[in-house]
Amino acid sequence: MTERTGTEWIAAFAAGLGVEPPTDEVVEQLLDLAGIAAHSSERIAAPIACWLIGRAGLDPLAAQDLAQNT
After folding, report:
1. What is the DSSP string of 16-68?
2. In which region does residue 30 sit, left (phi positive, over 0), alpha (psi from -120 to 50) or beta (all else)?
3. What is the distance between the alpha carbons of residues 29 and 45, in angstroms, rounded to a whole number?
4. Looking at residue 56, what is its pLDDT?
5. I need a surface site. Which of 41, 52, 65, 69 has the fewest CB within 10 A?
6. Residue in 19, 2, 21 with CA at minimum distance from that of residue 11
7. DSSP code of 69?
8. pLDDT tens-digit profile of 24-35?
9. pLDDT for residue 2
10. Distance between CA 60 and CA 69 in Å, rounded?
11. Reduced to 3 states, what is the DSSP secondary structure of residue 5?
């Protein structure tokens, strides 16, 4: 099996979930949020912060302020 790029993997995973993949802008916002979480705590905070905003239905950009102040 050939390795996929991150973008290809995300698109395939999104298709498997039956949802549209995130736009490039949303990907950047998620990476920024993950960076804030990871640099403010331990590495585990990054993916879990992204999962939490998904559960809460928050926009990644809006969640960055909350993350900065946590």
Report:
1. HHTSPPPPHHHHHHHHHHHHHHHHHS-TTHHHHHHHHHHHHT--HHHHHHHHH
2. alpha
3. 16
4. 97
5. 69
6. 21
7. T
8. 999 999 999 999
9. 77
10. 15
11. coil
